[in-house]
Amino acid sequence: DVKVTQSSRYLVKRTGEKVFLECVQDMDHENMFWYRQDPGLGLRLIYFSYDVKMKEKGDIPEGYSVSREKKERFSLILESASTNQTSMYLCASSTPNGAPLHFGNGTRLTVT
Amino acid sequence: GNSVTQMEGPVTLSEEAFLTINCTYTATGYPSLFWYVQYPGEGLQLLLKATKADDKGSNKGFEATYRKETTSFHLEKGSVQVSDSAVYFCALSDNAGNMLTFGGGTRLMVKP
Q: Cβ-count burial of A108 within 10 angstroms (0-12 exposed, 13-18 middle, 19+ buried)?
């Protein structure tokens, strides 16, 4: 069974802090994604990656960056956290060409 | 661009009632369509999918038919259970099949 593991379930950070959200998948998937989930807005794509060291902006990349140094790990970075980045963050992975996404359990981030 | 519109929730039903959650989409080309489910405290998991017009996806008693003429992919279940209480997301893929666009999600609450 595919496992996508997000390092923290809950995280509380202060405004202005640099925040790292880590995601690891164990099925050698090429594609990895970061979404944020907000009530009434569904899931919005922040960044995605099709391969190691590749990254593409999604729909809402502002205020975020990503790193993919190894195939199994995809990190989301908030350079200077702000209160409007308080949200649930979901990582996902997949093989290419229509394969379903496999999601982690999410990290609920609160920025105070 | 692609978009997905779902009926707003919450949808509250009694056990054994019939369920319909509406989903319509806007897309270029021939996307695949998906329903994902999110149980409390968990990430999303694939419920069912359909890859071409008139295909019917089904799983765990849920069904949805890909209707190109009405650009719809409505989720149905004949008899819901308390354990079906969750948030349901409709989604479509881009033409390459790599990226998903999600609807806003519909919360289903089933009462005994």
A: middle
> Any chain B CB within 8 A of the CB of A19?
no
**Whether B35 contacts B22, CB under 8 Å:** no
Find all residues with CB under 8 Å of A12, minimum gap 6, and list them: A109, A110, A111, A112
Beta bridge partners of A65: A77
Nearest Cα to Cα of residue A32 among A89, A88, A96, A84: A96
Tell me the pLDDT of chain A averaged across its residues: 93
Residues in chain B: 112
Residue A10 three-state SS: strand
- A43–B contact, CB cutoff 8 A: yes
Please give the Cα distance from A90 to A99 (Å, whole number).
Answer: 18
Report how far residue B12's alpha carbon sits from residue B42's, in angstroms, rounded to the nearest whole number: 21
Beta-carbon contacts of B95 under 8 Å, excluding residues fewer than 6 positions away, are B28, B29, B30, B31
**Element counts in chain A: helices (H) and strands (E):** 0, 12
> Tens of pLDDT along A83-107?
999 999 999 999 887 678 899 999 9
When pLDDT is averaged across residues B17-36 and rounded to a whole number, the result is 93
Q: Which of A42, A45, A98 sits opposite B51 (nearest CB)?
A: A98
By the 10 Å C-beta count (0-12 exposed, 13-18 middle, 19+ buried), A56 is classed as: middle
Mutation for testing the B interface, residue in A101, A105, A108 having most B CBs under 10 Å: A101
State both tokens at B32: 């695949």
